Structures are given as structure tokens and as C-alpha cells.
Amino acid sequence: QEVVSEESEEESNGVNLMEFSDEILLHILSYVPCTDLVLNVRRTCRKLATLCLDKSLTHTVLLQKDYKVNKDKVKQLMRDIGKEIYQLNMAGCYWLPSSTIDHVTRCKNLVKLNLSGCHVTSLRLSKMLSTLQHLRSLAIDVNPGFDASQLSSECKATLSRVLELKQTLYTPSYGVVPCCTSLEKLLLYFEILDRSREGFMLSGQLMVGESNVPHYQNLRIFYARLAPGYVNQEVVRLYLAVLSDRTPENLHAFLISAPGSFAETGATKNLLDSMARNVRLDALQLPKAWINGSGLLQHLKFNNPFYFSFSRCTLSGGHLIQRVINGGKDLKSLTSLNLSGCVHCLAPESLFRKAEDDIDSSILESLVVSCCNLRHLNLSAAHHHSSESIGNHLCQLLSRLKHLLSLALPVCSITDVAAGVEKPPTAPNLVPQTFGRKVRIGIQTYPRNLADQANQKIESSVFWALMGSLRFLETLEIIGSSFSSAMPRNEPAIRNSLPPCVRAQSVGDSEVAAISQLTYLQSLTLAQLPNILTGSGLVNIGLQCQHLRTLSLANLGMMGKVVYMSALMDMLKHCKCLRDLRLEQPYFCAGAQFFQALSHCSSLQRLCIVSRSGTLQSDAVMSFMASCLEVIMCHMFMGESLTVCKNLQQSIVRSFQAERPALNVVIFPLLHEDLTEVIRDVPMRHLDEITLFKSRVAEEPPNLWW
To answer: Where do the F-box domain residues begin and end (predicted)?
Structure first.
């Protein structure tokens, strides 16, 4: 009867989905996961049975964030449409058993294959690649135990035709690089730990039999990203040794992302000298030690650059304008620029300058004029203080970049000059940021809508105007210049944090409310905003930014109490599209009220809470997991005892693992000495994308990998 009434209602309204043209239906179906299309939707009627197998829908199969897919679904999918698949992305499918890879052999016509984060042994890789004769793009992990001698001649023949290779190394090895004799694009991710699980120090020397020389003669793009650790540096030098002997003539992108100190050697100096003589680059990123104090940038030649990263370099604004921007010539092609931690990049010189001194607005203006097509800009981790000159505030100059899609700024850069120079606000509820005795501040009240907030000074602020001019911004990061996460990579948890910049003391609720103008905002990061009193601006964001998918909040307001909890809970009730939530705040109480509000986020998939001295209610967590069926990652690093954490983690896994194959749960005391051992078992997808805090704007060139 219900079906009949629904059909009659459709007829009366004149709306029937099946009456749409095939083109419209195909466009609608393109938003449905391929596993649902093939295994479910196509069984509903004859028309959909035909459309679901259209080449436009089966040509590319994306399983990388299809957390409901399991081994049986992959097997059936490959059996039904394996021959029609030309591009298959299984990146980060850590929950699938290694035997799942055997079914990929049905995809005889595969051209691109991404298996990063999947469990693949040498023998399985050999068997699979032996059947994929058309493969031209490959992404894999190289784990301990990998043995290149187990690769068959047929497998090596396939690898010899591969043009693009992305390789993540968890052990010192060349992997399959020596077999790829036609490489044009090589992406290397070094995730090798300095110590084994047993505590033994590892060596960066490659194993005997793996000293085959990589073939770089056709290389166009070389990218290497290093996790912290000396072993990663040792191994990447072996990869670079061949490049230093003979630089590929067609090389146009050379990028090395290395944290900390990565010293330049004679071999790397020869490589850079050879690049300066023989190639013209379109993308460049180098370790800070290779640029600082050298005249390298003066000699390198650029063609039509689209990406530059000078993260953490001491490059001055004068050098940036003269040697890179070249007086504003030929930089219209630049779409992505990373100046994170480049503390002197907006000053004419760095020799006698303090990091907190005012910027030279003429340098920023030259940058904005020359690089008018920028889409991604990172200016975080530095003190960029504007002077009192009218019309030359950093926010006013950045408002000219109408094409920006992602932006990262330090907190102290967005304050109005008058507010930054005067003493911080003396509101009655403002409490000093200390870890001392908690202070009772009473019940917080805050305006509930955008109009009320606008009346509190913000429409005239330079940051309000900036947000109003960047209507199409999708990613925004506002991070304190002295902020550091309590949970860094491969180290014990940080117990003390540096105080915020003096200029940042006035940044709070009104600036957060200004962000609500970004209608198309998808990702938001706010860290170390000291003047958050109630968090009222968060409610406005929840109401206005309906496309928000990723939210990361850290150290907002006073440190001894979560003053914005009430506003956060109100905000979460409106975040229907939110998928990733990361909260880092001392003394955070993850109780029943919080999880009840979070349950309104029906699309939530990943949750991470980092809180020194934080508490949780186990029953509330279990109820939340039961009500939010899409959640597949729950990471909580709190102040609870090891026993409480282990019991809750086991209960969640026992209750929900069967119906959620991708479920990954880590609940552990933040200050426990074994935290780093626990972290190393977290799937790289979650660790890199949400668990570890970092600035992600312009972190890599756009579209580096498909």
C-alpha cells in the first residue's frame, strides 16, 4: 500500500526518476560508490542494470574511502566488471586481507593501480603484476620482508613499462624502482623508523642484492617526503646518488620534504649544480639547509612554475622577490606556494631582523600582484605583523587573490593593528592561560545568530573583509605561530606549550564568526586562539558552512577549562556533512552531553581527541558508536588510566568490528611512555590525515597523485 501511495504521489507531482535522460541519470549515479552500483543498484530494474555498467562508471573504481567494502564485495566486483576497469584505487584499504589482492588479476586492462596502505607481499605482487601488461601507473608499500629477488620475469617486464611509481618505504630498500626502467614520475614516502619493535637501531644501508641502479634517464618528476629520523635521510641519499651522477634532461619538478635538519653533502651539491646548468623547473621544494645561506635560487632556472615550497627556510622577502618571483615576471602560472615557517619571507632582509618585527607590505603586494592566480597559500608558523599603514594590512592585500581555494595564516596576522598594539581585552570572563588552579567563571552566554555577532565590531575588521572577499575558499587554517601539538611524531607527548604571540591576544570569538561567511568551506583548522570566551562564532560556522567536512580545533581560549564546550555542542547539531573531527584541548570532558551532540553528525567517520588531563565516559562513547553507524575511526588520547582505556577499546572492537570491517580504535593515556609504540600501529591514512596535527595547505603540489 505504501508503494502504491508513493507511486500515485509521484504521478500526481509529475516526477519519476526513470524518466530522466540517460545523461542525467549517469551523472547522478556517478556519486554512488561503485560497489553499491554493481552489487545493489543495478539489480533494481532493467534500465539501471544497463546504466550501472556504463563505461563512464566502471572505467575508474575508487575504493580508497569505501569503508564498508570487504573481501567478498571486492571479489564479486572484480568478477562482474574486472575487464572493464582501467583505473583502480584501493589506497588505504588496510582492513582488507592480503589475499584480496589476488582478485585484481581479473582486471586485465588496468592502466593505473593504487595499493598504498594495502598488505602486499613480494610473491603476491609478482603474481598480480605478471598479468597486468597494460599497467603504466603503480602505487605500493614496501614493508619489512620485501624481497625483489622473488619478482618473476613477467612481473619485471610489466614494471619496465610503468611510467609512474609511488612507493612508501617502511624498510630500507630500493623496492621495485630498479625494475622500472621507463619512469617519468617517482614519488617516494620514507616512513622507516630508527628502531625496530625489539629496540634495535636500524641501518640505512640497503640489503645485499638490492644495490641495483635506479633508472632516472626519463624522469620528469621526483618527489620525496621524509618522516623524522636519520635512517630515512640515509636511504633517500642512496636514491639521490644516481641523480647526482646524471641529471635527467626532462626533469621539471624536484621536491624533497624533510623535517628538521637534513644536511647538504657533496653529492647533493653536485646534483643541485647540475640542475642549475641543465634543467628548467616548474616545481621546487628543498630541505632548508640546502637553501639557507646559499646562492642556489639565483642560478636555478624556471619555466612555467606551478608550485614552490620554501617551508622553514630563512629566505628573506628581498631574495624571494629578486631570485624567485624575478620582479613579477612569468609567475602567473604559480598556483601553489608554501611559505610555512619562513619567518623572514615578508621582510626585505633577515640579518638584523627579529621574527616579531612588522612585515614589509610592499613585498607582500609584489607577491600578490605577481602571483595573482594563486589557489593555495601557506603563511603559517611565523609572526607576520602588519604595520599601521592604512590599506597595507596583510588581510587587505590577500583579499586581492580571488582564486584562492586554500589558505593558512598565523593567528597574529589577522588581528587589526589597533587591537594588536593596544593591551588585550579586559573582559570580565577572560582568564589567564595557565595550567594552574581552575577558575570558576560562571555560565557562558553568547549570541545565537550572525546578526548579533556582526554588531560586536567585526564587520569593520580587516579579517571580516578578507573572509567576505574569498567566497570560494574551501580550506582555511588559522594556527598560532607558537602552537605545537601535544602529540608529535615519534616522540613522547609534549607537556608544556609556548604562550601565544602578544599580537594574537585579541583574536577570539568575533574573528571565528567572520569565518561563517565562507559558504563553500569544507575544511577548517583553528589552533591557539587565546581570546575565545564562549566559542559563539562556532555556532555561526555550523549554521552557515553546510559543506564543512573536516574540523580541527586545538587550544582555544583559556587552557584550564574548555570554555567553548556549550557552543561546540550547539555547532555540532548543524554539521550534517562533517566526516572528520579532531579536538585537542587540555581538560576536555568527553561526556554524555558531548557525545549526544556529536551524534547529530550523521556523516561522521573519524574522531580524534587529544587531551592532557582529559576525561571520558565509557558508556557515552559506546552509545555514540552505536548511534553513529558511519564511524570507523575512534582515537582518544586522554588522561584516563591504562586500564580504563584498554577496557573501552576492547569493548568497542568487540561490539562493532564485525559490522564495520575498517574499524580502527586507539584509546590510550596521552602521557604514557609507550605512546609512540601504539602510534606506529595506526594505519598511515588516519595518522597522516587526522591523528597527527600539521598544516596541510600547499603541503604537496596539487594533483601530485590521482
So the answer is: 14-61
Q: What separation, in Å, do the N-terminal and C-terminal C-alpha atoms of the chain show?
A: 47
pTM: 0.92
198-222 burial, b for 16+ CB within 10 Å, e for fewer?
eeeebebebeeebeeebbbebbbbb
| 363-389 pLDDT per residue, tens | 999 999 999 999 999 999 999 999 887
Domain with CATH 3.80.10.10 in the chain: 396-414+462-488+498-690
Give strand pairing partners of 189. Answer: 168, 225
Q: Is the dihedral of CA 67, 72, 73, 78 positive or negative?
A: positive
| Integer Cα distance of 554 and 362 in angstroms | 33
How far is Cα 276 from Cα 255, in angstroms, rounded to an integer? 15
Q: Do 362 and 391 form a contact (C-beta atoms < 8 A)?
A: no
Alpha carbons 139 and 120: distance in angstroms, whole number: 11
Q: Summarize pLDDT for 566-585 with one digit per residue, the tens.
A: 999 999 999 999 999 999 99
Cβ-count burial 485-522 (b if 16+ within 10 Å, e if not)? bbbbbeeebeeebeebbbbbbbbbbbbbbbbbbbeebb
Q: Yes or no: say if 503 and 482 are a contact pair by the CB < 8 Å rule.
A: no
Please name the helix (run of DSSP H) or strand (run of DSSP E) that holds residue 417, with its range, or none.
Answer: helix 417-421
> For the domain bounded by 396-414+462-488+498-690, which CATH number is listed?
3.80.10.10
Burial class (CB in 10 A: 0-12, 13-18, 19+), 6: exposed
CB 522 within 8 A of CB 402: no
Q: Is the dihedral of CA 464, 470, 471, 476 positive or negative?
A: negative
Distances (CA, A) of 367 to 282, 329, 519: 18, 11, 27
Dump the DSSP string for 54-85: -HHHHSEEE-TT-TT--HHHHHHHHHHHGGG-
30-63 tens-digit pLDDT: 999 999 999 999 999 999 999 999 999 999 999 9
Are residues 312 and 288 in contact, defined by beta-carbon separation less than 8 angstroms?
A: yes
- Say which residues have a Cβ less than 8 Å from residue 657's Cβ, sequence separation at least 6: 663
**Using one digit for the tens of pLDDT, what is the confidence trace for 407-425?**
999 999 999 876 544 444 4
Please indicate whether residue 432 or residue 12 has the higher confidence score (pLDDT): 12
